[in-house]
Design goal:
The complex is a heterodimer of chains A (130) and B (449). Chain A has 130 residues and is α/β, with parallel strands linked by helices. Helices cover 38% and strands 18% of the residues of chain A. Chain A has a five-stranded parallel β-sheet with strand order 2-1-3-4-5, sandwiched between helices. In chain A, helix 1 packs across helix 5. The longest helix of chain A has 13 residues. In chain B, the strands form two sheets. In chain B, strands 2-4-5-7-6 form a five-stranded mixed β-sheet, with helices on one face. In chain B, helix 5 runs antiparallel to helix 6 and helix 8 packs parallel to helix 12. Chain B is elongated, with a radius of gyration of 35 Å. With 449 residues, chain B is of the alpha+beta class. Classes of the chains: A alpha/beta (130), B alpha+beta (449). Chains A and B meet through helix 1 of A and helix 7, helix 8, helix 9 and helix 10 of B.
């Protein structure tokens, strides 16, 4: 049975850029475009992995959603789903535009612009497919 | 903007309140001045009496001087203790001290000849001072109060309700204090001086506060612009490049050789644009930080350097460039900013990896001297031609060999690094030999304990 991946991002172009390599690698890809939609789709689809953007309806929507899914008050079934966070934090401004990576309850980061090969490698690693 | 504060002559009610910093700074300044004033009274009285042989009520004046020093000690205590935390508390202390000073000055005035005393001039100082720390309406009320105080003293003495202390040694007409015309004339000139001065100072202080607010708003607007620009410029570029990479790597179906070539070129141009945007925004942010005089703070340089190395590690691994790190054990606190320090180390390490070919080696070393730390990045990369070295720190300048090798770069990285290093009172030195490699040494002074 193919693994299910949920993309939560409000930028349709980024969603497309994520969808193409993931679909061609045989994953079943689902989409949500807001924090609220993301949360409801998680329960509906029960994905094996979530790819989450930092900025959506608000500048920190992604962080908030990550906290809801993996924070101290999160449901156990949510905590079991690994999250990959998409960051646009530029390499020379490592600390300015978001909280420190160490404090975020996510399993991995993928930097935007997305490199399809690196994305697939990261996803496979988290799903223990390597 | 509030229209009331704009209309001339009606700024009192809605004047800008002095900030907490302004109030506490002025209060502390006043306390320092008062130590001098109180001691001055004591010394002056003794000097006048025993050296200049002017007959004064020494005892009473010494009591006034001691009282000034006494309540100043109390005020100093109130300001140092935990009490002075809110703007309201600072405002109250500011008002209290002005009233206390006026009572002391009224006493000084009384014991040095009342309306005929040369000490009358001193009241003018406080008329100016109260204008700097009070709201316009309050400052005006205080000016009126001081005129009433001096007028009342003159009236009481002239009518014999309060004994007049005559300073015959000053050569004044001893009956002058009873001369109504003289009293009224002095009060008129004194009063107009106090009111005019207080009004002028109050207005200037208000204008300054308004400017300060405007500067603050401009700064906020600039920060917002930087954040929005950062997102709005980077997001579409990142999305576009992500899609192009999909095409390039064949996830959208097979492409002809020519199509692949074109897509490769477009991606390259977009990558270049992204780099320039990133570096420009970084440069703007670092210049903004220097211009806005954001205070430096103690930052652990080793911690930042370790984070940067961790971040650049995958980059080096992808390129098969070996990363050798020699870090000392000690903590290395330098006065800087964590963002700025990250930019310095990030740019230098990123450059070293970028300009070093496959199987090359980049060394990062961090050592500590008595009063500084030295961070060295050295690589076995392409180096910089000797004729390009003098310009290497200039904005947008790129070495000829780097351009020829079609390695993308904006020419802003080193210029940003130098701006920041200078801001942190450090030095940067670069040595390079074309084809052999480059070594960059950054020295930053340790924060003094």
């Amino acid at each position: 049975m193919p693994k299910k991946i949920l993309l939560i991002d409000d930028d349709p172009d980024v969603v497309l850029a994520l969808r193409m390599p993931l679909a061609s690698a045989g994953y079943e890809v689902y989409e949500a475009h807001t924090q609220a939609e993301g949360l409801s789709t998680v329960d509906e689809v029960k994905p094996n992995l979530i790819i989450l953007d930092v900025m959506m309806d608000t500048h920190t929507a992604g962080f908030q959603l990550a906290l809801k899914l993996h924070g101290p008050t999160a449901k156990p079934e949510h905590c079991a789903i690994p999250i990959v966070m998409l960051t646009a934090i530029h390499q020379t401004t490592p600390l300015r535009f978001g909280p420190d990576a160490d404090y975020l309850p996510v399993e991995a980061f993928v930097e935007k612009p997305i490199d399809p090969q690196q994305l697939l490698a990261q996803v496979a690693k988290l799903l223990n497919l390597t | 903007m509030n229209t009331k504060t704009q209309s001339v002559g009606n700024t009192d009610e809605n004047g800008l309140r002095p900030t907490y910093e302004e109030l506490s700074q002025n209060t502390r300044l006043l306390i320092r001045l008062r130590w001098v004033a109180g001691s001055g009274i004591l010394l002056g009285v003794l000097l006048a009496q025993y050296v200049l042989q002017i007959d004064l009520p020494v005892g009473a004046l010494l009591i006034v001087g001691c009282s000034v020093l006494g309540y100043n000690a109390l005020l100093a205590f109130a300001c140092q203790a935990h009490k002075l935390k809110t703007t309201e508390a600072a405002q109250r202390v500011a008002l209290e001290q002005i009233v206390l000073d006026w009572l002391a000055m009224a006493a000084l005035l009384h014991f040095t000849g009342g309306i005929t005393s040369p000490a009358l001039i001193y009241f003018v100082i406080h008329a100016a001072l109260s204008g700097t720390i009070m709201l316009p309406k309050l400052a005006r009320s205080l000016s009126v109060l001081v005129i009433v105080l001096v007028g009342g003293l003159a009236l009481f003495e002239s009518q014999g309700w309060l004994p007049h202390v005559a300073l015959a040694d000053l050569g004044l007409d001893t009956a002058l204090y009873k001369n109504m015309t003289y009293i009224l004339a002095v009060l008129f000139f004194f009063g107009t001086t106090v009111i005019t001065l207080s009004e002028l100072v109050t207005r200037k202080a208000q204008q300054l506060r308004q400017r300060q607010n405007q500067v603050h708003q401009l700064y906020e607007a600039r920060s917002t612009f930087m954040r929005v620009a950062t997102h709005e410029l980077r997001a579409p570029l990142a999305a576009g490049i992500s899609l192009m990479r999909n095409l390039e790597q064949g996830y959208a179906g097979p492409l002809s050789e020519q199509q692949t070539e074109i897509i490769h070129r477009v991606t390259g141009r977009l990558e270049h644009l992204r780099l320039v945007v990133d570096d420009l925004l970084t440069l703007a942010a670092s210049e903004e930080a220097s211009k806005a005089q954001i205070p430096l703070e103690p930052v652990n340089a080793r911690e930042i350097l370790e984070k940067i190395i961790e971040r650049e590690m995958p980059n080096a691994e992808n390129k098969h460039v070996r990363l050798d790190c020699h870090m000392m054990e000690d903590n290395t606190i330098v006065m800087s900013g964590d963002v700025g320090l990250g930019i310095i180390f990030g740019n230098l390490l990123n450059n070293a990896i970028k300009y070093t070919p496959e199987n090359g080696c980049v060394r990062v070393g961090c050592t500590r001297a008595a009063h500084s730390i030295e961070v060295v990045f050295s690589d076995t990369g392409m180096g910089i031609p000797a004729e390009d070295l003098p310009q290497i720190f200039n904005e947008f300048f790129r070495a000829r060999n780097a351009k020829n090798a079609q390695i993308i770069g904006s020419g802003l990285g080193l210029s940003t690094v130098r701006t920041l290093v200078e801001r942190y009172q450090g030095t940067i030195a670069l040595e390079s030999e074309e084809g052999k490699g480059t070594t960059v040494k950054v020295v930053l002074p340790l924060a003094s304990r």
